[in-house]
Design goal:
alpha/beta
Length: 417
């Protein structure tokens, strides 16, 4: 069992914080990479009731800053929030979209070793400073480049392969799969519309366009203005997560260090699948995610039935389904039908993606893992941001996935009595 707890958290707004000037076309940033990083760092330390001088190690998860903002070696930037942090050791961790979960786990190991008492864990990404073409190419570099990214396979294409394999293996009709995907997206949009920090938050595009139900999404045209166009069959536009900017942070300390306001990291499981998609046994389930969840549950001493809220990696609708099944919240081949039948809302025993998930909250890739943990920490402390359950959940779980289903990080969090 882990001997570490989350004692504070902060989450910036997620969104597109770069826009072109109408006259010159030059890009104007309302929030840059550094602004987001510093805001999250300061906020988490304050939320933990600490001062910067109390932090004795900093771990940063960020995926592609060299490409998005021309910044390498970014972890030392965190020191700039306060002179008291000078000489504090920093590390940058990268695991594609699971970068900041990997950073979190390394901070946990450091705290458990006894060498560090209070660790600051940051996740940040600034994606909108480059064109869609450049962004797509950068994300494709998280694939096995010679056989995948280099020959034009993009992230939607990779996860379309999962959707095709899933549909074929479980013999799901085109209509049933499309309905399931629409229900997954609508749930994310409804939850996101309650989250003031979400990219598609209150009054955001999904709410303005009336896309809060599966029926509304299914009624969209296939082509033309407002279409739910095919991106990579069978995935459509509204099956894809958002390109976002944002940051989140948590403070980790030994269990019991802060009586009355901590969430115990009860279990973690990190696994890695082989990178080449063509070398995997199959693509209709996340074997590595299943194993990561098993390890986290075993360490925490629970089963999936104990989980009352989960944040899962819905980079694409199919991945929300695969992650729901990997966590054991649905039987294999059944998650899409469970979503269609109305499960996993804030009123269900286990709510999924109360934050809106990557689909509506947003997906600044390096920030996503810590974002999941920060949002659940707030839910468990009775300080939920946006959509909440009637009672704060006592046991929650995350499943964060990096690359084309390669890095899997599962965490079980338990509220201390």
């Amino acid at each position: 069992m882990s001997n570490a707890s989350v004692i504070g958290a902060y989450h910036t707004a997620f969104g597109a914080f770069t826009r072109p000037d109408r006259e010159t076309g030059a890009l104007i940033e309302s929030k840059g990479y550094y602004d987001l990083l510093w805001e999250a760092a300061r906020g988490a330390i304050e939320d933990a009731g600490l001062e910067p001088k109390d932090i004795d190690g900093i771990w940063l998860g960020t995926a592609f800053p060299e490409g998005f903002v021309d910044q390498a070696h970014p972890a030392p930037l965190a020191l700039e929030i306060d002179p008291a942090l000078r000489f504090v050791p920093t590390q940058r961790l990268e695991g594609a979209c699971a970068s900041s979960s990997v950073a979190l786990y390394n901070a946990i190991y450091a705290v458990e070793s006894g060498r560090f008492k209070r660790a600051l864990v940051l996740g940040v990404e600034k994606m909108t400073s480059v064109s869609t073409q450049v962004m797509t190419a950068l994300l494709a570099r998280a694939s096995y480049w010679p056989e995948e990214g280099a020959v034009g396979l993009t992230a939607p294409g990779m996860f379309a392969a999962y959707a095709q394999a899933y549909q074929a293996h479980y013999q799901i009709s085109d209509a049933a799969l499309r309905r399931a995907f629409a229900h997954v997206s609508a749930l994310g949009y409804r939850n996101g519309a309650k989250n003031p920090l979400a990219h598609f938050g209150p009054g955001g595009l999904a709410e303005r366009k009336g896309l809060l139900t599966a029926e509304a999404i299914l009624a969209l045209p296939d082509e033309g203005p407002g279409a739910n166009a095919v991106v990579a069959a069978p995935l459509r536009l509204h099956d894809c997560s958002l390109v976002s900017d944002g940051a989140a942070a948590v403070v980790i300390a030994p269990r019991g260090a802060v009586a009355g306001r901590e969430v115990h990291i009860a279990g973690i499981g990190q696994t890695t699948e082989v990178m080449r998609m063509g070398q995997r046994a199959q693509l209709y389930r996340h074997d590595a995610g299943i194993e990561a969840a098993r390890r986290a549950y075993t360490e925490a001493g629970i089963t999936a039935a104990a989980v009352e809220a989960a944040e899962v990696h819905d980079c694409f609708s199919i991945n929300q389904i695969l992650c729901t099944e990997a966590l054991g919240l649905s039987a294999h081949g059944r998650a899409g039908f469970d979503y269609t039948e109305g499960r996993f809302t804030h009123e269900d025993h286990c709510a999924v993606n109360l934050s809106g998930g990557l689909k509506a909250k947003g997906h600044p890739v390096g920030a996503t893992g810590v974002s999941m943990h920060a949002m659940l920490f707030k839910q468990m402390m009775g300080e939920g941001i946006g959509q909440t359950k009637a009672q704060p959940p006592a046991v929650t779980a995350t499943l964060n996935v990096g690359g084309s289903g390669v890095t899997h990080c599962a965490t079980v969090l338990r509220r201390e009595a």
